[in-house]
Amino acid sequence: MFGKILCPVDFSPPSHAAVAVAARIAAADRSELVLAHAFHFPSVAAGAEGPLPGTTIQLAMDDEKSALTAVAEHASKLGARVTTRFLDGVPWQHMVDLAGNEGFDLIVVGTHGRTGLKRLLIGSVAEKIVRHAPTSVLVVRGNPDGPLFDHVLCPIDFSEGSSLVVERAGELANPSGAGLMLLHAIELPLAASGDPLLKDPIMFLDHRMQIELDRYRDEVVARHKLPVTAEVLTGTPVELMLAKVEEDRTFDLVVVGTHGRTGLKRVLLGSVAEKMVRHAPCSVLVVRGRD
Questions:
Q1: What span, in angstroms and rounded, lies between the C-alpha atoms of 16 and 20?
Q2: Residues 75 and 116 reside in one and the same domain
Q3: Averaged pLDDT for residues 92-119
Q4: Which of 285, 3, 288 is nearest to 138 (CA)?
Q5: What is the predicted pLDDT for the residue at 77?
Q6: Contact, 18 vs 108, CB < 8 A?
Q7: Do 81 and 96 fall into the same domain?
Q8: For the chain, is the Cβ count within 10 Å smaller at the N or the C terminus?
């Protein structure tokens, strides 16, 4: 599934939750897990008249190196094969560069608050990683108990990358849990939604989309041996998906696809993936399509 996983560490509770999830996924997949911390210490403290003494900066650096070692030891106890990177500079830029230069398959990052990145969106490290990462990003909310998720929602639009998105969802769904729901939204113009002359064509479209969605369902069931449902609904994709995860709080992961080499950067404003990352009350995996 994921051969090489990168997990940024900033020693906050959400970061610790992300490390736990990353370690469990790495242990289950026998993947390489790299825990990376970017040391970013101001050269001048607030209210100070000049630069901070070198000894002060060195002490802070030593403390954070020790803290990173402790986090790595905990991840190792969860069964992961762990190495660490201690970097110096802007955190999000280091993580994005590291992921691109060393061929990571997944970045696992923590976030704060009930609604994903909504509360720390502007200027946050997590948000910038999601925007600019050249690989898939798992945004962790809460602290799942294992490497797999008990109830996964996977919206698909039948685009070129849909097969990969569904495959990732199937890999992360717990066969012993509630399983995986595949969802396709048929978005109609407002004027057409109540037109009686379009009733039959809409029903025909719904039927054809259900057949296609069932094909994806059957493939996932055959490959991963887990319970899968497939549902075609009429409406706006984001609104339908958010309604699903708000109404049924057993959903603990949403898997969405995006296009382009730089994650959400090219499709950020108004995209389904971006809105789910911002507003979903559960973890979200943003799958970057193959180049």
A1: 6
A2: yes
A3: 79
A4: 285
A5: 95
A6: yes
A7: yes
A8: C
- Phi–psi pair at 80, nearest 5 degrees: -85, 150
Q: What is the DSSP letter of 149?
A: B
* Owning domain of residue 82: 1-144
Same domain (yes/no): 179, 139:
no
Tell which of 144, 172, 202 closes a domain. Answer: 144
**Mean pLDDT, residues 100-119 taken together:** 74
DSSP label at 173? B
SS3 210: helix
With beta carbons less than 8 A apart as the criterion, state whether 264 and 257 touch.
no
Closest residue by Cα to residue 178 from 253, 280, 279, 282: 253
Are 155 and 288 in the same domain?
yes
The residue-averaged pLDDT of 183-206 equals 66
- Residue range 147-182, pLDDT digits in tens: 789 999 999 989 888 999 999 999 999 999 999 999
pTM for the model stands at: 0.86
Place of tokens 């660490």: 84
Do residues 87 and 173 both lie within one domain?
A: no
Task: Report which of 15, 265, 18 is spatially closest to residue 128, judged by C-alpha positions.
Answer: 265
* Axis crossing angle, helix 91-101 with helix 125-132, rounded to the nearest 10: 30
Say whether both 93 and 175 belong to one domain.
Answer: no
Q: Identify the CA nearest to 266 among candidates 95, 113, 130, 117.
A: 130
- How distant, in Å, are the alpha carbons of 1, 25, 67, 80 from that of 83? 19, 15, 14, 10
| Structural domain total, the chain | 2
Give the residue-averaged pLDDT of 242-259.
Answer: 91
**Boundary-marking domain end, from 105, 124, 144:** 144
